[in-house]
Specification:
Blueprint lengths: L2 H27 L7 H4 L33 H4 L15
Length: 92
């Protein structure tokens, strides 16, 4: 093997590792495809209402989830701001 071929082979390893790292970072991070909560979601603060009346008590439950939760449907929980809702409008 010539010296040029050996050097190219040695440089191929770190270059490939860097490319794989960047690809996996972009694939799992996907910031360019994600919902920008700060810009696209209107949050209206309202005064706290309610009472101190105790409703129910659950002891010794083994359930890890609450019936009817919407944790996995995050796109349905937030409302995107339209052009009339904010001064910046919807950015994509």
């Amino acid at each position: 093997m010539s010296d040029d071929g050996g050097l190219a082979l040695l440089l191929l390893g770190p270059a490939g590792a860097t490319g794989l790292y960047w690809f996996l970072y972009r694939y799992y991070r996907n910031t360019d495809k994600s919902h920008a909560f700060e810009r696209e979601t209107a949050v209206d603060a309202k005064p706290v209402t309610g009472s101190e009346h105790k409703v129910d008590e659950v002891k010794g439950t083994r359930e890890t989830r609450i019936d009817g939760d919407n944790v996995r449907e995050f796109r349905q929980r937030v409302r995107l701001m339209g052009p009339a809702d904010g001064d910046e409008g919807l950015k994509r």
